[in-house]
Every structure is written in C-alpha cells, then in structure tokens.
Specification:
2 domains, binds zinc ion, six-stranded mixed β-sheet, single chain, about 350 residues, Metallo-beta-lactamase, Chain A, alpha/beta
C-alpha cells in the first residue's frame, strides 16, 4: 500500500481557486470560526457550468466570498451537493439555493438533520441528563450554552432536496459518481467516487491529517457511533489506493487505504488507552476525557472531547470490557470489567 502523499499546496481562504483536476475540479477554502479554521469546498464541472460540493459555514465573510467567486466562474452553478448536515458543510445551502434557484442534493437523514432548528441552549432535561451522566456540572453546561451562542444557523434551510442514496450514482457533467454512505461522524454522510477521474470527494469521512470527530451526542445518549464509524471506514477503504482523495479539511492526498487503516489503528489505540485508564482508576466520562486528551478550554472542544470519550466507552461497554454504574449524584462511573 502507498504511503500518504499530499500533492497540492492549499489555496488561500480568500476565494482563490486551484485546479486539482484540470478542467474538471476546482478546490477552494473558506474560513471557519473555530479551532479547525477552514473547510475545503469543490467545484465540479457540469456541462457549461459547475456543481458546488459543500457550502461553508454561514457567516458574513463566507457570503462575501461566494459573492466574489460566483461571478468569476466561466459558467453558471448548476446545483449544490452537501456531503452531510454539519454547519461548515451545509450552512450556506439554504442561502445559495435561494439565491441561485438550483437543486440541492443530500442524503435523506442529513437533509432532515439540516432542517431541524438547532437549539444550542442545552437546557432540555435530556441535555442535562446527558451531561450529568458524563460528570459535567450544571455550571459548566451553562458556560457551554453561553459559548455556543452565535453558532446557531442564521439563514433558513433549503426547503426541498434531491435524495442521494448509498450505492446509487449521481451524474455530474461527463462523469458518474458512485455514492458511499458513512455513519459515526454524522447519520448518513455521503462520499462521491468517480472511477474514471480516480477521485473521491470524501467530505469528513476520510481526512488526511486529522481524525474526524466520532462522538455520542445528547440526542442519542446510548448510541455506539464508533462501531458504525469503523464499519464505514472498511467500506470506504475498499476503494482503490491510488485514488486522489479530496477531503473537506486539510490537504488532498493519495494513500486512501493506508489512511483508512491508520484511522482504524488510531481508534484501536484510543480504545486501549481508555480501557487502561478505567483499569487504573474508575472515572466519569468527563474525568476520563481530561485524562485522555490534552485539555483545551473552549466549550466546543470540551463537548467534543466528552462525546468522543463516550463513543469509545460505548464501544468498550458493548464488548463488555468496561462496566458502568450510576452514583448517588447521578454520574456514570466506568470501571474495567471484573474489577472490584
Ligand atoms: Zn462533519
Ligand atoms: Zn467538516
């Protein structure tokens, strides 16, 4: 299997377009208001125009960038594809479809997730139960809600969509793209693979340098997303190793199978670390997350660390490698199976 190779330098986050597949696919970047400070978007040649792959997070800066990019193209935008509903990917889907009157393609689960009003106040009893079970105090949760203000969706979502389904295809211009769904990072993520171009538009399903977040969310506290994620990695890892992977973050790369295996190995290592931490000292999800990850103070980072730790614990729980008990204070404490 090939070692990872990163054949391109990134474009600036200012509307610069790079021809990653000359005449067929352009790459651009937009800023994100978080630790991961950019998203990659792509334009795929569609006859005389271009199909947009993912839209950017909805901010004044990203709208301005689109206002600058759209008139610079040599043809009209023919449609929009969103790999999944996360705000950096679908945030401007409603704004763009309204402005351009073009169709939006997404999977069904991602479309409806996008349509939901995202309430980030974290004050439902379910949200509070999730964090209490994880060992996060009510004061911390109030701080998270405060910090998340401003991350709510700004523009209304697109009111209709065309459905993308696993194992079906989407034709864009001269090329037929095979669709592969993935779970674990989001409910029904779609990656697009063209065998004649030798390209995978991987969204967040396969990233070259960072590991996509795989977390248990408050709306499904008993989920086992890591199990789904590992199955999805095997599925995407079946594609040819020489494929050029065009991911939504960091750099395009060659070495698809190597990367899928690296990501699997990464989670395998993390599972062992979590099990070892539970053996050393039984602890809550929050306590374990602090021992597992370098502490970063931001609300989003803490929430993601808690969700990610919980995902690894849910996997170990299903394998019966750890056990979970509820304390009088309402926290789940995890210990290694068989320990007193
Ligand atoms: Zn995502
Ligand atoms: Zn993303």
């Amino acid at each position: 299997m090939a070692a990872l190779e990163f054949p391109f330098e990134p474009p600036a986050c200012n509307g610069e377009l790079i021809d990653v597949v000359p005449g067929e696919i352009k790459w651009l970047r937009m800023p994100l208001p978080m630790a991961l400070n950019h998203i990659n978007l792509y334009l795929v040649r569609d006859g005389a125009g271009w199909r947009i792959i993912d839209t950017g997070f909805d901010t004044g800066a990203t709208r301005e960038l689109w206002e600058r990019i759209l008139p610079s193209l040599d043809g009209p935008v023919t449609g929009i594809v969103c790999t999944h509903h996360h705000g950096d990917h679908s945030g401007l889907a409603g704004w763009l479809t309204e402005k351009l009157r073009v169709p939006l393609h997404m999977s069904r689960a991602e479309y409806f997730a996008m349509r939901l009003v995202h309430d980030l106040s974290l004050d439902s009893w379910e949200d509070r139960a999730y964090f209490r079970h994880a060992g996060v105090s009510d004061e911390q949760v109030a701080g998270f809600a405060q910090a998340l203000r401003g991350f709510e969706r700004r523009s209304p979502p697109a009111m209709a969509y065309h459905r993308l389904r696993d194992r079906e295809t989407l034709t864009i211009g001269d090329h037929v793209w095979a669709l592969r769904s993935g779970e674990g990072h989001s409910p029904e993520h779609i990656a697009l693979y063209s065998s004649d171009l030798g390209v995978l538009l991987s969204g967040d399903q396969l990233l070259g340098r960072i590991t996509p977040n795989v977390g248990v969310m408050p709306f499904e506290p008993e989920a086992n997303p890591l199990e789904e994620w590992l199955v999805s990695l095997d599925y995407i890892g079946e594609l040819p190793d020489e494929t050029l992977v065009l991911p939504a973050h960091e750099l395009p790369f060659h070495g698809l199978r190597t990367r899928a295996l690296e990501l699997k190995a990464h989670h395998g290592t993390t599972l062992e670390r979590v099990a070892a931490l539970c053996a050393e000292q039984p602890d809550t999800v929050y306590g374990l997350s602090r021992r597992l990850f370098r502490h970063r103070p931001g609300a989003m980072d803490t929430i993601m660390a808690v969700g990610e730790t919980m995902a690894h614990l849910a996997y170990l729980l299903k394998q019966q490698r750890v056990q979970r008990t509820l304390t009088a204070e309402g926290c789940h404490v995890y210990r290694i199976s068989g320990a007193a």
